[in-house]
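Problem 12. The chain below contains 235 residues. Write out its predicted structure in token notation.
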Amino acid sequence: MRQQGRLTEWNDDRGFGFIEPLHGGFRVFVHISEFPRDKRRPIAMDLVTYTVDRDDQNRPRAREVLFLAPTRPARIAQPAVAASRGLPLALVVSALLLAMAVIAAQFVGGGQVNETHPVLSPSTSTDEAVASAFREQRSGVQVAGEGVVTRVLPDDTDGGRHQRFIVRLASGHTLLVAHNIDVAPRLTSLEPGDSVAFFGVYEWNSEGGVIHWTHHDPSGQHTAGWLKHNGVAYQ
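Solution.
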């Protein structure tokens, strides 16, 4: 079964990256060999379709990846042109409002994909937002907050290298932080009990969720995230 997703991370020098499903779920590893050879090179934030398979170590990876052409919004007739053809002004205004409604519906209903993740409003606490996303099994939610490190894990070296550790929020909810150290500096001298502030994207899983995109986007197309530890920002 083919799925639609976004290439949220891509290392062109090494020829691999990660795809996140558009409708939520776990991101999957993808290699350059799965893209069409007669097309352009992939870049971060490309929209694609793909199937999911397992490698020799039973890890999920994307197969048969194809670029997904973006939906183009309908062109809006210019009032001056319409008026020059003798159409009544009221009819011109109605046509403009209808065209604007169509374009707005494309953005809201999925006709065109918004390039940014939803961001917390200032009045919404991180704990509430994470708890809501966890209950509703939502992914792709931009969150900012702070937690206490409860466990430092070995680096994830499957594809891009990620420094991993678990933080506990004030509510008691725990999150896995996966910080891409191929793109951003490693947090130094990280120990259990340390306080770490974060700004990144929440991805749901049954164990509480993952925070990633805690770094800048080399292509400049994704909201830049960060981590702060001992007064130092890592981005």
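Discussion. Residues 89-109 form the longest helix (21 residues). Students who got a different answer should revisit the alignment rule from Section 12.3.
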